[in-house]
User: Which sequence fits this backbone?
């Protein structure tokens, strides 16, 4: 299985930029696209798609969110961080079977 | 708007079967793919499987002997059955639309989730 490794938690000040990383144990990119996606989950809510295929912003998601990466290394950026962004962020790959998720990065306020 | 809603018992006894329903509104399940994902206490998330617009299925190999996903197109519902459950199957279960093709390919709509506890 493709293991996706994320840092468990990150502390950030409001208004600052934060980078959340996701490292895959094998490539999740084809020659044309990267099959890595990012979700936000707040307590008691379902996951919400933020970024699909590494860098595409889902409709309705604020432009403060952006994604990048290819191959095995991917990042989700939030700039600037707002109070509403306090949540857990998961990466997920859909290139290799079975589909797998990262363990999540909990964003906390300093 | 696409909406999904899980339903089913919140408590299942060990060795029994877990059965959940996902009711979909705003979109036909005869289009696209429809999946089940679960989140364990402690945050780990696991893709369980999906059913396609045509009724074909794909399952996580870790569950392959215990899982079945079926559907009722007349009610626009799909179902999860997980057999021989243990306490390790205690989790929040989500259904989601899997927007699937060669590209793109991601979960874009999710249900609210249902917490299932396996306990005697």
Assistant:
């Amino acid at each position: 299985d493709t293991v996706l490794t994320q840092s468990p938690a990150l502390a950030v000040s409001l208004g600052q930029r934060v980078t959340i990383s996701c490292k895959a144990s094998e490539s999740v990119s084809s020659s044309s696209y990267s099959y890595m996606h990012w979700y936000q989950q707040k307590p008691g809510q379902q996951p919400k798609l933020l970024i699909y295929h590494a860098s595409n912003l889902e409709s309705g998601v604020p432009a403060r969110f952006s994604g990048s990466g290819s191959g095995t290394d991917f990042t989700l950026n939030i700039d600037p961080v707002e109070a509403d962004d306090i949540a857990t962020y998961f990466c997920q790959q859909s290139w290799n079977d079975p589909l797998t998720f990262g363990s999540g990065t909990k964003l906390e306020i300093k | 708007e696409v909406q999904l809603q899980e339903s089913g018992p919140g408590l299942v006894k060990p060795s029994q079967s877990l059965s959940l329903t996902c009711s979909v509104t705003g979109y036909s399940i005869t289009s696209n793919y429809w999946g089940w994902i679960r989140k364990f206490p402690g945050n780990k998330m696991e893709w369980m499987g999906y059913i396609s617009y045509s009724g074909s299925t794909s399952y996580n190999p870790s569950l392959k002997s215990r899982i079945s996903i079926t559907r009722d197109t007349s009610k626009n519902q799909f179902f999860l059955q997980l057999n021989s459950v243990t306490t390790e199957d205690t989790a929040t279960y989500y259904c989601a639309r899997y927007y699937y093709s060669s590209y793109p390919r991601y979960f874009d709509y999710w249900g609210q989730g249902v917490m299932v506890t396996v306990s005697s």
User: Anything to note?
Assistant: Chain B is about 0% helix and 55% strand.
